[in-house]
Design a protein that fits this description.
Blueprint (H helix, E strand, L loop, with lengths): L1 H30 L13 E7 L6 H9 L7 E7 L7 H10 L5 E5 L8 H6 L10 E4 L4 E2 L4 H8 L5 E12 L3 H24 L10 E4 H6 L12 H11 L3 E13 L4 H18 L1 H5 L6 H12 L2 H25 L11 H14 L5 E4 L2 E4 L4
Parallel strand pairs: 1-2, 1-4, 2-3, 6-8
Antiparallel strand pairs: 4-7, 5-8, 6-7, 9-10
Length: about 375
């Protein structure tokens, strides 16, 4: 029995090392993919920004979507549930500061839609005039090339939707830096590996861009209203109708606002349980992403230095390589947190294990069950 356990741990650790190697290869392939900017095909665009409450750097994040080098017409609509939302003055100030973006603020509730983000977007005052509709969360920041980069994805009529990878903008706290590390070293490499193994059938909430005619085909934004993972649902609905979801080379940035371990745990547990509900089989094996804890577990449990130490050395080298490859692929500019990698990977493995014990998640102070709402 001991021999079988030893063999099983060794196989798992080796498999996780192969995952790291594949993830590095996918990151480097993405890093060397050129960023194309549209100059001739420039469709009109409507950008929807769902906002719910004050967030760090909210003005800068919202303003970045208005300050675009895009000669074609585009609208930016800041959507809020309530006129009393404390973020309203900031949204209105951004709209005044960037008149060329045709920015406006849309207020109102939609109690018929369960998903609060989609309910914030679907209301009579929101007019989707653009040929391309872009939805990007309020904590996302872009530069002036964003719309030109997105437009290239829709040059082909086969493309029904496009999405973007993202990196983190951490604050000075250790918790926020750990959160950014999970995005850049954990989640994004897993997305690239998943795409290598199959067709892209989902979007990421950092950017969901969809051709307006395709959005009409799927029943409009309201069709996403009973799904907690609206980004995943949009990609599925687009591909089911024979269109493709394009992964843009452009990388956006997200503010990592958490400052306490409790908040970070809750946020990452929501991601984890949502992914478990969407793809149970694939998620069950996603622990292979965390090769460093698995290699250490093999070394401690088996105490076979002849095999354990070389395996650990290989895993350490691959894990450091993945960290630097992710920084290159995502154009990460904040200081490297390589020393936090062991803590980050053990924390990620703990989140993975905890995700199997329950289906409830916390989202903006509300509790939901994963899956359909």
């Amino acid at each position: 029995m001991t021999h079988l356990l030893s063999l099983a741990l060794f196989i798992v650790a080796v498999a996780s090392a192969f995952y790291l190697a594949l993830a590095i290869a996918r990151l480097l392939a993405f890093a060397y993919r050129p960023l194309e900017l549209a100059f001739e095909f420039l469709p009109t665009v409507t950008i929807l920004k769902p906002i719910a409450g004050l967030e760090p750097d909210l003005y800068e994040n919202l303003a970045s979507f208005c300050d675009q080098e895009y000669p074609q017409e585009f609208d930016v609509i800041f959507c809020l549930h309530s006129p009393d939302d404390p973020a309203r003055p900031i949204a209105e100030r951004v709209a005044r500061d960037f008149p060329s973006a045709h920015a406006s603020v849309a207020l109102g509730e939609n109690p018929a839609i369960a998903n609060p983000k989609i309910a914030n977007l679907v209301k009579p005052s929101v007019d989707l005039r653009g040929e391309i509709v872009v939805i990007a969360d309020s904590d996302i920041r872009v530069d002036r090339r964003y719309l030109r980069a997105l437009a290239t994805s829709f040059a082909s009529q086969r493309t029904g939707a496009a999405t973007c990878l993202y990196s983190g903008i951490p604050n000075a706290t250790l918790v926020s830096r750990l959160g950014a590390l999970q995005i850049e070293d954990g989640f994004i490499p897993s997305v690239l590996v998943a795409i290598a193994l199959g067709k892209l059938r989902f979007c990421l909430g950092a950017t969901m861009a969809v051709r307006r005619s395709v959005l009409v085909e799927i029943g409009g934004l309201a069709a996403l209203g009973d799904q907690l993972a609206d980004d995943h649902a949009l990609g599925e609905m687009v591909t089911e109708r024979g269109y493709e979801v394009e992964l843009s080379r452009y990388v956006v940035k997200t503010t990592v606002a958490e400052t306490t371990l409790r908040d970070l745990w809750s946020h990452e547990l929501r991601w984890a349980r949502t992914n478990l509900a969407l793809a149970p089989a694939g998620y069950a094996f996603s622990f292979l992403m965390y090769a460093l804890p698995l290699a250490l577990l093999y070394l401690i449990a088996v105490r076979n230095l002849a095999w354990g130490l070389p395996l650990l050395a290989v895993v350490l080298a691959l894990r450091a390589g993945l960290h630097h490859a992710a920084r290159a692929a995502l154009s990460v500019s904040h200081p490297s947190d390589l020393s936090l990698v062991p803590l980050r990977d053990f924390l990620s493995l703990a989140v993975w294990a905890a995700s199997f014990f329950g289906r409830r998640v916390r989202w903006r102070a509300q509790t939901y069950r994963t899956g359909r709402l």
